[in-house]
Design a protein that fits this description.
This protein is an alpha+beta fold and 283 residues long. It contains 4 helices and 18 strands. The protein has helices spanning 26-34, 72-84, 176-184, 222-234; strands at residues 2-8, 11-17, 44-49, 56-62, 67-68, 94-97, 101-110, 113-120, 143-147, 150-158, 162-167, 194-202, 205-212, 216-218, 241-246, 249-255, 262-267, 269-275. It has an 18-stranded mixed β-sheet that branches.
Length: 283
C-alpha cells in the first residue's frame, strides 16, 4: 500500500490514495502506521476517496484509531496531494469531509507544486447541542468548567469537530499533559473534544497550543486555530482576522462578516513517499 508522508506546520499525516473505501479495521491500521517507534509515525492516517459531490472525499483516523470529522491541516495535505499528482487540474478544488460537508479550497502553486492552501472552513457552529456540549444556552462563551480539580473558563465552538477554547495568560507555559486529557474526556463533551489554550497577544495575533482529541499535543491544529479566533471574537478580545501562532508555525485565520465563514491559510509540505508492507511492519 503506497502512501505519502505530509504535514501542515508539523501536524503530520500518512496520506493514502487509490482505494474506493477505507479498509476493514482502519482504526487498527491507523494505530500501527501512526506509531512513531514501530510504524511510519504521524498524528493521523488520511484516506483520499472518490466523491459524488466533490473532487474527492477525505476520511481521517487519529493516532489512537478514532475517526475525526474534520482536520484543517489534513485537508491542506489532501489538496496538495491531488494537485501535485495530477488528480485535479484546478487550483480551486472541492473536498468532501464528514464534519463540514464539501469545502472549497484555493491553491498557491509555485513551480508546479502547491506550497500553501486557503480553505473555506465554513461557518462555526455555536449551539451547544450541535457541538456537542451537555449544557443549555444559545452559546457557551466564557463559561466555567472544572477538570482535574481546577476551574477554567471555556468557549465552545465546532468547526465540523468540537473545540474547547480556554484563554490563559501564557499558553506556552501550560502543562498540556496535565490538563489536556481531563478536558478532552470531560463528561460535558459526549464525543470528547479538542482543547486549545490561547493567549491573545494583540487583537490581530494569538498564541495557541493544542491538545488534540485522539492525538494529544500536536504542533498545529487548523480547526483549532479557527475555533480560537472565533472564540476570541466572541469574547471581544480580537478582530475578525488574525495570525494564530502555533508551535509548528503560523496560520492566517479570517472570520468573514459578510458570509459568516471562516477562512484558513497556511503552508503544506510533502516529506516522502513510501510503501506499507502487507505484514503491517515497516522495513
Amino acid at each position: 500500500m503506497r502512501f505519502a508522508k505530509m504535514h501542515g506546520l508539523g501536524n503530520d499525516f500518512i496520506v493514502i490514495y487509490g482505494l474506493s473505501e477505507v479498509p476493514e479495521r482502519a482504526d487498527e491500521l491507523a494505530v500501527r502506521m501512526c506509531d512513531r517507534h514501530f510504524g511510519v509515525g504521524a498524528d493521523g492516517l488520511v484516506f483520499i476517496l472518490p466523491s459524488e459531490r466533490a473532487d474527492c472525499r477525505m476520511r481521517i483516523f487519529n493516532a489512537d484509531g478514532s475517526e475525526a470529522e474534520q482536520c484543517g491541516n489534513a485537508i491542506r495535505c489532501v489538496a496538495k496531494y491531488i494537485y501535485d499528482n495530477g488528480l485535479v487540474d484546478t487550483v480551486e478544488p472541492r473536498i468532501e469531509t464528514a464534519g463540514a460537508g464539501v469545502q472549497q479550497l484555493s491553491l498557491k502553486v509555485t513551480g508546479g507544486k502547491v506550497d500553501a492552501v486557503r480553505v473555506n472552513m465554513g461557518a462555526p457552529v455555536l449551539e451547544p447541542a450541535k457541538i456537542p456540549v451537555k449544557l443549555d444556552g444559545e452559546r457557551l462563551v466564557n463559561v466555567p468548567i472544572e477538570a482535574a480539580g481546577r476551574q477554567f473558563r471555556m468557549t465552545a465552538v465546532s468547526m465540523g469537530n468540537p473545540h474547547c477554547v480556554i484563554f490563559v495568560d501564557d499558553a506556552e507555559a501550560v502543562d498540556l499533559a496535565q490538563w489536556g486529557p481531563s478536558l478532552e474526556h470531560h463528561p460535558l463533551f459526549p464525543n470528547r473534544t479538542n482543547v486549545e489554550f490561547v493567549t491573545v497577544r494583540t487583537r490581530s495575533e494569538l498564541i495557541m497550543r493544542v491538545w488534540e482529541r485522539g492525538a494529544g499535543p500536536t504542533l498545529a491544529c487548523g480547526t483549532g486555530a479557527c475555533a480560537s479566533l472565533v472564540a476570541a471574537v466572541l469574547n471581544g478580545t480580537a478582530d475578525r482576522s488574525a495570525d494564530v501562532r502555533l508551535p509548528g508555525g503560523t496560520l492566517r485565520i479570517e472570520w468573514d462578516e459578510r458570509d459568516g465563514n471562516v477562512y484558513m491559510t497556511g503552508p503544506v509540505e510533502t516529506v516522502f513517499f513510501g510503501e506499507w508492507p502487507s505484514n503491517g511492519r515497516t522495513s
